[in-house]
From TrEMBL:
It comes from Candidatus Bealeia paramacronuclearis. This is IS5 family transposase domain protein. Residues 5-98 form the Transposase IS4-like domain.
C-alpha cells in the first residue's frame, strides 16, 4: 500500500492454498517498500527474500518463535485498511458478483 492508501499489488488464492507459498511471486518486482503481512507470512526464508530486494518486512512473529521478532506496530496498523477493503467486498457481494437468481 502506498502512503496515499493505494494498493500496489494483490493476489487471491483458494481457501486450501497457504498464503506464503505464493507470496514470493507477489514481491518479485517490488523494491524498497514495506511488506505488510500477518503472522501466516512469518518465515525466515520469506523475510530473506523480501530483504534481498531492499523491502522491509512488517510481519509480526509467531508466538512459538525461539527468537522473538519485533515489527513496527504503527505501520502494521495500516494493514487494517486491507482487511476493511475485503470486509466491504464480502458485505456487498451482490455488487461485486453482479449476478441474478435467474
Amino acid at each position: 500500500m502506498t502512503a496515499e492508501g493505494h494498493f500496489v499489488e494483490g493476489q487471491l488464492t483458494g481457501g486450501n492454498v497457504h498464503d506464503v507459498t505464493v507470496a514470493s511471486g507477489l514481491f518479485e518486482d517490488i523494491v524498497g517498500c514495506y511488506a505488510l503481512g500477518d503472522a501466516g507470512y512469518d518465515s525466515d526464508r520469506y523475510r530473506r527474500d523480501l530483504m534481498s530486494n531492499n523491502n522491509i518486512p512488517v510481519i509480526p512473529g509467531r508466538k512459538n518463535r525461539k527468537i522473538p521478532i519485533d515489527c513496527d506496530k504503527k505501520i502494521y496498523k495500516l494493514r487494517s485498511r486491507i482487511e476493511m477493503f475485503f470486509g466491504k467486498i464480502k458485505e456487498n457481494r451482490r455488487l461485486g458478483m453482479r449476478y441474478d437468481k435467474l
